[in-house]
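Running this now, will post back.
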Amino acid sequence: MIPLRDNIPSRSTPIMNYLMIALCTGAFLLQVMQEKAGVSLVDRYGMIPARVTHPDEVIVVPEKVLVQTPFGVQVQVAQRQLPPAGVAPWLTVLTCIFLHGSLMHYLGNMWFLYIFGDNVEDRLGHFGYVLFYLVSGVAASLVHLATNVDSPVPTIGASGAIAGVMGAYFCMYPKATVLSIIPIFIIMEMVVLPAPVFLGIWFAMQIWNGVSTQSGAAGVAWWAHIGGFVAGMVVAKVLDLTHHLRPPVLARRPGTEHIGMHRLGPGEHLFRD
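Update: finished.
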């Protein structure tokens, strides 16, 4: 499912959400430039569980390399020693949330943050949102660390922090709706889903993948997503019960625009400013 927009407007300019997007963007551009120079920020600032739990040990990882043989170019597995961390190893639980593994990884994370982050910032305030975002990211990293204690695989991405934002949104806006695209084979269907349904399905998918796949399979830190989402829910609920949240913003009115050649009927919603 791909969210296009929700029906909750921003009360004020979400400057801190934009700042988080800008920081991730700057870090991603720096990654690309450094990789062209032969330097991997992922190796130095990614969270490598084995390096956090055994900071004095040398971490060696398998790496596929192309080797010229009498039978042509073949792929072989070599051993590569990871460089030392660019910061104290325990600090990588924070630095890793600003790095991404690919352009699509970066774009997907930033889009979800753009959709849901502004409304969470509305309820928490600017400073509170930054603190919440960082705490969610660290909590997600720690959950992944606890479930992959000896893994030498670098963990990167804002997904855990953004999962925290989504968990907070789940609690803060139970009556919100999300206009979404759902790919069905080659057909793209646009549907309006209650936000708790959209986010609930997303969370259930993370649990399913986390339980049914091996640790680190497919290069996705499922338990970091789960940990971040739960942390976001817990923090949002505690702040709500202790009356530390700003009042929620009222939803937008539904519009009557077209989607392609299809006019929305009486029971269909498309939201506008």
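The domain at 2-55+87-245 is CATH 1.20.1540.10 (Rhomboid-like fold). More later if anyone needs it.
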